[in-house]
């Protein structure tokens, strides 16, 4: 069977993971039924870099967090080693050897790591930082306060702009109404000035004529 596979023209699909352990398709590129260019004849295990960095818990609440190691079925194919990482000290190995572990939040943040081992070597590693009991509530309250303060500031600016616009509009309307209602008075105020200008012009012209004579 192995010799037959080696003699086939095979192509391998993309690994389902970018780190740790995953699977990929094995494709036949010649001799597929129905004259297809490619056909899937199976799947196989594939590996990426061992360190998968910081993982996301399966579930969490204010009291506890549930985390999982990296693996592909069947789960019992691998060995799992859970550790607590302590700065500047050796990691503390926990008695839990299952792929999933649930822990209660402590009074301070704790970093956990799970190593997935196969055939005596590490094939995947993932870390989880579990925040302290009061941290999620504190972050949430700070975020709520910030959002509320921003909303209040925006509402105050909007109200100020609306009030200012209304005052200016009302002022312009009243000015127009006043001019319409008192147009006669305004006209009498403007007319004497025009007449005085005409009279002054006539006097000036007469003086000019007298000078010429």
Distance N terminus to C terminus? 137 Å
Shape: elongated
Helix tally equals 3
Query: What's the number of extended β-strand segments?
Result: 11
Portion in beta strands? 25-35%
Question: What is the assembly state of the chains in this entry?
Answer: single chain
Q: Secondary-structure element sequence? A: HEEEEEEEEEEEHH
Q: What CATH architecture of the domain at 51-130 do you see?
A: Sandwich
Major β-sheet annotation: 5 strands, mixed
Which strand order does the major sheet show? 4-11-10-7-8
The CATH homologous superfamily name of the domain at 51-130 equals Immunoglobulins
**Backbone CA Rg:** 43 Å
The CATH class assignment of the domain at 51-130 is: Mainly Beta
Indicate the percent of residues in helices: 25-40%
Task: Name the poorly predicted regions.
Answer: none
Any idea of the CATH topology of the domain at 51-130? Immunoglobulin-like
SS-derived structural category: alpha+beta
**Overall pLDDT level:** 81
Primary descriptors:
alpha+beta; 3 helices; transmembrane helix; SPACA1; 5-stranded mixed β-sheet; 213 residues; membrane; 11 strands; SACA1 protein; Immunoglobulin-like
Describe the structure.
This protein is α+β, with helices and mostly antiparallel strands and 213 residues long. Among the domains are: 10-48, no CATH class; 51-130, Immunoglobulin-like, CATH 2.60.40. The chain has three helices and eleven strands; from the N terminus they run αβββββββββββαα. It has helices at residues 2-7, 135-181, 183-212, and strands at 10-12, 21-28, 39-47, 51-54, 59-60, 64-68, 79-85, 92-93, 100-104, 110-118, 121-130. The radius of gyration is 43 Å and the shape is elongated. The N and C termini lie far apart (137 Å). This is SACA1 protein. One of its GO terms (cellular component) is acrosomal membrane.
């Amino acid at each position: 069977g192995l010799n037959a596979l080696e003699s086939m023209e095979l192509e391998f699909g993309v690994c389902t993971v970018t780190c740790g352990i995953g699977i990929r398709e094995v494709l036949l590129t010649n001799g597929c039924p129905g004259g297809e260019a490619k056909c899937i004849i199976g799947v196989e295990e594939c590996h990426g870099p061992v360190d998968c960095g910081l993982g996301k818990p399966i579930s969490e609440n204010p009291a506890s967090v549930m985390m999982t190691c990296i693996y592909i079925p069947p789960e019992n194919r691998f060995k799992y080693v859970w550790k607590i990482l302590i700065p500047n000290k050796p990691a503390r190995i926990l008695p839990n050897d299952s792929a999933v572990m649930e822990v209660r939040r402590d009074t301070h943040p704790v970093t956990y790591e799970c190593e997935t081992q196969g055939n005596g070597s590490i094939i995947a590693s993932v870390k989880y930082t579990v925040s302290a009991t009061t941290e999620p509530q504190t972050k949430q309250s700070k975020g709520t306060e910030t959002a509320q303060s921003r909303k209040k500031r925006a509402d105050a600016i909007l109200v100020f702009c609306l009030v200012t616009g209304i005052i200016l509009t009302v002022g312009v309307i009243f000015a127009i109404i006043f001019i319409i209602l008192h147009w006669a008075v305004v006209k009498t105020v403007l007319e004497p000035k025009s007449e005085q200008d005409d009279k002054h012009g006539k006097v000036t012209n007469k003086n000019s004529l007298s000078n010429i004579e």
